[in-house]
Structure formats: structure tokens, C-alpha cells
Protein: Carbamoyl phosphate synthase small chain
Amino acid sequence: MEARLLLEDGTRLEGEAFGAESSKLGEVVFSTGMTGYQEVLTDASGYGQIVTMTYPLIGNSGINRHDLEARQSFIHGLVVREHATSPNHRQSEGSLDRWLKECGIPGIAGVDTRMLTRKIRAVGTMKGILSTTGAPWDALAEKLEAGSLLRDQVARVSTGTIHSSPGSGPRVVLMDFGAKYGIQRELIRRGCDVVVVPWDTPAEEMDRLGPDGILLSNGPGNPKDIPEAIATVGCLLHRHPLFGIGLGHQLFALAAGADTEKMKFGHRGSNHPVKDLTTGRTWITSQNHGYTVRIDSLAQTDLTVTHIALNDGTCEGLAHPHLPAFSVQYHPEAAPGPHDSGELFDRFLASLHRNQEGTAHA
Structure:
């Protein structure tokens, strides 16, 4: 069956349909990772996006439960150069095509993803519609013009209840803005008593949980679309040690008085170099974001830049000089991606222990 992808600038791409028979509108983006397509597709930070994979062959290792980073995929479409129909991997439990069908996600293969990526790099991400239903171009154009991109993604992906993974170590309250499973795995691996709470949980309710620290998770969309979360983080900042990742990093910055802005085409992939300004060391990181903290806005805050992206000089990390609070834009849980920056979880735990010792002495 034929699939069609229409962009808001009028670009038309035709290819082979796979996945679900559906028409979905979303923001067309690209991801540069050579591995880990399953983690990319189940990262809630990609909610509502039509994801173009720059690596040419996708689906060759199939799908398995172990590599899921959320209970389902939240993307609105998948664009690939070549779709592997016969996966071959010892952990494979099924094909990408079958899994996309189960998730209701359309896919298009056989298109020039190199050209599409270059277009997005030149003009920026844009709205698009991907259809595998056989709908004519005129009908797709009408839907594209009438449709709008989502602004309530966080509420759609966050947990609806408070739940916990008991441990013998410090209690960490994880604010779920679309948290990847890898974040919780890293905390549990270090013995933390993890309590996951919905994105809109009030600061007072989190206080009653008796946290030793707060972790602000990754998530989709514009951080300014959830002003109530910014206010909550502003309260928590002065009460508990805090670590922000991805969207959590942006919320931390906004709560401290900084500003954020939409990037031209964002950072998505598992091969982004980031320099740690405190050590001079460069990390290769996993990233998935379309907004960034404006470095020029930090002059009006107490925050300092700790990490920068070497490709474009954007802010990748922040720290508060007087409070036990820091954040990074990239994903230290490395799913997918290198494990270079996993030590940030150790740094967070060290700040919890120092805070506990200081409280005991006081």
C-alpha cells in the first residue's frame, strides 16, 4: 500500500506503507542515532512527532519488551529509508511493522530521508501529516491546514497515580513529566526508595512524602505550557536537593528566573557531544528535545552553565551555586546511547547524603 507524507511547505513524499492504516498529524523531526530505534520510539519526549530516522535501515533487530522506555509509543508517525521486514535478533519478540500496528502508528518507507533531514535542517521542524489510508493529497492538505500541534502532551503521558519502588536508600520523589523507564532503573540500581508522582502534584503533597531529593524527569513539548509545574519547582528548589533531566532541566531554569526558546530543529539522537565546563571533559550523549535554555537569560539568575553542546553552543547543564540543585538537558540514563554520563546519578545521591548530614548536624 502507498503511504504519503505532506509537509506544511507543500513538500510531498510518497513511499511504501507499513505499520497502522491511519492518518496522523505531527511535528516532523529527525533523529540521528545509529542504534536504539525502539528506545527512540518509546521516549515520551517525542509525543506527537513524526520521527525521521537518519540511519537508513530500521527494524532489523525487531521489538522486545526489555528495550521499551514507556508503556507504549507516543509518536505520531515513523519515516525510514528502508524498513526491515524480517528481523533477526535473539531478543526479538516481533517485527517493527506488527508493533506499530498494535500502537496505531503509521509508517512510510522508501523515501529520501537524507533529503528530508537536510530540508528540516535548512528551514526548521514543521507540521506534517502522514497517511497510509490512501487519502488523496487534497484531503490531506485540508486536514493539515485545519489541524494544530498538541500543547498538552505532558498531561497525556504522565502517570495518573502515585506509585513507588521501595528501596533501602534515600527517598527520591520522581516528578513524571514523561519519564523514561531508564531514569527509574538508574535510581533503583543505586538502592533509592523511588516514589513516582504525577506532573501536577503540589509541592505540599510531595513534602508529605518525606523526600530526601526531587528528580524532575524528561518530557514532551514546551515547558511554558505547564506554568503550574514551574511554580511547583520554584517551591521545591528551596526545600529539597533537586536534579532535572531534559524537560526537568528547562523547568528548573524557568523556576529560577531564566528563559527558554524553541530551537530550529532540536537535538535528537544518541551521538551528541557535550562539554563539561567544570572538568573540561567531553561526553557523547543521548538527546531528545526541541527547546533550550537561553544562555543570555541566565544573567538575571543565580544559575551557572555547567555543560554546553559542542555542535551549536547551546546550554546543556546548569547548577545553583548556593542550593543543592543541578540539571542537564541530555539523558544520562543512556537509553539509547553511551553510558558516559551515568555518574550524574551518583552526583545526585552524593548531594542527598551531604544534605542529610548537614540537616543532622543542624
